[in-house]
Each structure stands twice: as structure tokens, then as C-alpha cells.
Amino acid sequence: MLVSTKAIVISKLRYKDYDLIVKCYTQKFGVISYLLKNVIKTKKGKFKLAYFQLLTLLEIQADHKDSRSLQYLKDLKLQHNYSTLHTNIKKSAIVIFLSEILTNILKEEEQNLVLYNFLETSLIWFDENETNTNFHLLFLIELTKYLGFYPDNTLNNAKVFNLQEGRFQHTHTNKYCVSGENLRVLKQLLGINFDVDKILDINTNQKREFLDMILLYFKLHLDGFKTPKSLTVLNQVFS
């Protein structure tokens, strides 16, 4: 069946000598993997390697068959031509980190328009605005809305946040309760837009600790979630 859809590149893997397996989060079908034959070797073909940089936004035509795990692209074009995401070193580090997280958590082969629209809108904003070194923090918090465990903000004046329960409360009840600086940053991030650098008062060490807290939050609510290997590189870039 020939299909057309928007798609976001979330990972790529070299296969054999010259082939590439590209995993995309598509607007119409959720997660789909595509096999591109000889794309690494051939320079004259329609599928250039530059099209498959991480988190690139594409419009694709593909041949989909339910009987196979890898599908085949027929045609594609850039939906949005990034101007900074793959050239700015700080943004590139964030892109690699977020693509690894998305590869980890996006598994379903089914349509989720609100999630797709969030990803697309967020990436375009990140590309078109000045380098925002806290973008990934807010992105991850906002992402939990679409994964089903956005923090319950009912008691937002409380002095404790329970990572395991996903809610604010007045006292510590288990080892996953946080307070202090991480709680302050979390409260700042809830309910604001991506232009967070202008209002978020946080130093490098606090940023690392808060990111570790967010990743623990994901682990507690998503079975099989793993700490991204690219976290080390991200911390080095922002050190």
C-alpha cells in the first residue's frame, strides 16, 4: 500500500555495508522503520544521508505492508529545513539526547496526532529561536502530558513532590520524594512556555541534578526506560 505522511527521524542504524535502517515517528502510523538500500554508497540517488539526521522533519511516500517489519521509502522531501539544530553544538547535543529518549519510549505503531504535533511544534520552535540550554528540561516535562504521567499540580504550594505518585504533597512518604532546589525548579517549569531561559534561575550543577531527577521520574513510570548513553556527552557540552 502506498502511503503519504509526515515523519520525524528518531534513530538510524547502519545495516550491512551500505544500507541504513531509519526509525521514524510518523504522523499517521506511529513508529515505522524503513530500510534504505545502498544509501550510504550511492551519491546520485534521491535519498541523501542529510535527510536522515536525527529529529529531521520529513514528508514521505512509502510502501507499507503489514507482513514485514521494515518498510520501503518511495519518495521524500524536507518538511522543515533546520537552520541551527544540526550546526549549533549545544543544540546538536540536545537533539542527540532527545532522539535517544524518543527511540527508547516511542514503540506504538498507531496514530497519535497530539503527540506528533507536540514534537513537530517543539522542534521547529527550538530551531528558530536562540540557543536555549534548558529546552530539554521543559521538553521532557511537557512530554509526560502525552505519556500519561504529567505531574498532578493540585497541591502546587506543597513542599514535597512524590516522583513515584506523580503529585505534590506536604510530607515525605518514601525515598522518591523530593524537595529543596529540585522542587523549586519543577514548580518553575510547570505551566510555562519554552522561552524558559529568561526566567529559570539554575546553574550547571543544579541542571544536572534536576535532569537526573526527571530521568528517574521516567524510569518510575515507564517500564524498561533506560538512562540515555548520550547523557554523558550532554553534561560535557554544558559543563
Can you walk through the features of this model?
With 239 residues, the protein is an alpha+beta fold. It has 2 domains: 2-80, OB fold (Dihydrolipoamide Acetyltransferase, E2P); 89-237, Up-down Bundle (de novo design (two linked rop proteins)). The protein has 6 helices and 8 strands. The chain has helices at residues 89-105, 113-128, 135-147, 180-189, 204-221, 231-237, and strands at 2-15, 19-26, 30-36, 57-63, 70-80, 160-162, 167-169, 177-178. The strands form 2 sheets. Strands 1-2-3-5-4 form a 5-stranded mixed β-barrel. Strands 7-6-8 form a 3-stranded antiparallel β-sheet. Helix 1 runs antiparallel to helix 6 (231-237) and helix 2 (113-128) packs antiparallel against helix 3 (135-147). The radius of gyration is 19 Å and the shape is elongated. The model has no long low-confidence stretch (mean pLDDT 92).
The first-level CATH class of the largest domain is given as Mainly Alpha
Query: Runs with pLDDT <50, length 5+?
Result: none
Q: Which whole number gives the mean pLDDT?
A: 92
Distance N to C terminus: 49 Å
Helix content: 25-40%
State the total count of DSSP E strands: 8
CATH superfamily of the largest domain: Recombination protein O, C-terminal domain
